[in-house]
């Protein structure tokens, strides 16, 4: 059974929970921007059998709260580890959660044992984006700026969970309902967050990948956006100790869409690198 925590941070509180034995090696899970900590639900039973599993809603998402303030996502991640008494952990991040994980490893290397980056890229990346994908991203950005939340969540569903090279008929309807619910569960936080502004790592991770001193696993879904695959290749080329894998028949949230396939790769890698 999960234990819930409220972690105090500067002018905010992070909703967190833990599973498993605190005496075991720790995993800190960081969710994607189209989800909350609930995206990890399908993986928790298997992970908690072997690890102490920590997850939380980042500031401005899910059940976490924040006043208008500049803040560091890296400092928030460390605050969560401190709150549950963990000196170091393997950080597992999806999408923006992976960017936060990588940044945290660079800023706080003594607190990170290993990295798992799922559908993620380094901060400061400015590579080319397919024009059709860019148009979809621009439409989602416009909906967010206008506060058109229902439109935003449907656009994000099409873009990230179906993907630009699949149709709805190609995707399990039950997964789409779960993905839709994950996105919509951020609505209250989006409406209430005001101007909580994350301060980026400086200098950014894009030019510092060779500084990462821990093993890394980089994963991407087969049907994710093309620039995400470009980012995965970049990470695989420049991180010093890296394993790369592709999750078939999944888009941007493989831990939700194909949890068994993710666990098959993840548990094997963690057994070697996260002990």
Automatic annotation (TrEMBL):
> Which GO molecular function annotation, any one, does this entry have?
hydrolase activity
List the SUPFAM superfamilies: alpha/beta-Hydrolases
Annotated AB hydrolase-1 domain residues: 25-259
| A Pfam family assignment | Abhydrolase_1
Q: Which InterPro entries match?
A: AB_hydrolase_1 (IPR000073), AB_hydrolase_fold (IPR029058), Carboxylesterase_BioH (IPR050228), Epox_hydrolase-like (IPR000639)
Question: Which key words are in the record?
Answer: Hydrolase
Question: From which domain of life does this come?
Answer: Bacteria
Protein name, please? Alpha/beta fold hydrolase
